[in-house]
UniProtKB/TrEMBL annotation:
It comes from Thiohalobacter thiocyanaticus. Residues 1-18 form the signal peptide. This is Uncharacterized protein. The keyword Signal applies. Pfam families: DsrE. It comes from the Bacteria. SUPFAM superfamilies: DsrEFH-like. The keyword Signal applies. Keywords: Signal.
Amino acid sequence: MKHLIAAVLAALFTLASAVGTAGEYGKQKVVYHINMDDPAIHNAAMRNIQNHINAVGAENLDLRIVMHGDGVSLLQNANSDMNVQSKVVSLKSQNIRFHVCANTLRGRGIDKDNDLFNVTEADIVPSGVAELSHLQQQGFTYIKP
């Protein structure tokens, strides 16, 4: 009987710890900065972002991904890579917002409708670096994967 009670208490403690994990971090505002053309970094960043969501809880997280320069290649590569497409769709379905630099698009002749995966006009920001600064001024924590 003592073993049963101990096992039940251990199970309850484990469950309570798991349930409490998402809430222990509180509300967070975070901006991830992507400016490199490296699929390994893109995949690591999206994995880190999903882990961040899992730890904090989507309901406790206002997370933005700012892409400029070579980082825009993440969404270019997604056009032909189903794995990247599924990650982008999954993150967007969890209310993660992608911000794409208009300066980069204009300077490199990139068409958001034909060259980028799942980008709307609402995803475009005038300047990626200005957006990073603006979000940090609003209290967003900066993360560079």
